[in-house]
Design brief:
Helices cover 0% and strands 48% of the residues. The strands form 2 sheets. Strands 2, 4, 5, 6, 9, 10 and 11 form a 7-stranded mixed sheet that branches. It is globular.
């Protein structure tokens, strides 16, 4: 059973930075896409950023220029993904989830990590 283990959430002031990490518990499965979603209070879960194994990264308009998704195939065989979040805003407050997708279309989700941006 593959597990995605997330870490790095917390409380930060507006304008601050956080770095989330997500590591899959296996190097024997190559995920086609790994990405980050978030769900704010009273909101639907939305895509924040995604990183295919090869190809361009995708970002939500609301985070472009502030967030960077990092995935290196040399790191845990490409099964680790980071989300560097800079210039954080109160509206970035949410539970952030890591998702990994196999070529078969099967999805795996992390347990979620809380990010709170508040002064």
């Amino acid at each position: 059973q593959v597990q995605l283990v997330e870490s790095g959430g917390g409380l930060v002031q507006p304008g601050g930075s956080l770095r989330l990490s997500c590591a899959a518990s296996t190097t024997f499965t190559a995920f086609d896409v790994m990405g980050w979603y978030r769900q704010g209070p009273g909101k639907q879960r939305e895509l924040v950023a995604s990183a295919p194994r090869t190809g361009s990264r995708i970002y939500a308009d609301s985070v472009k220029g502030r967030f960077t998704i990092i995935r290196d195939i040399r790191d845990n065989a490409g099964n680790t993904v980071y989300l560097q979040m800079n210039s954080l805003k109160p509206e970035d407050t949410a539970v952030y989830y890591c998702k990994a997708r196999l070529s078969s279309g099967a999805d795996y989700w992390g347990q979620g990590t809380q990010v709170t941006v508040s002064s």
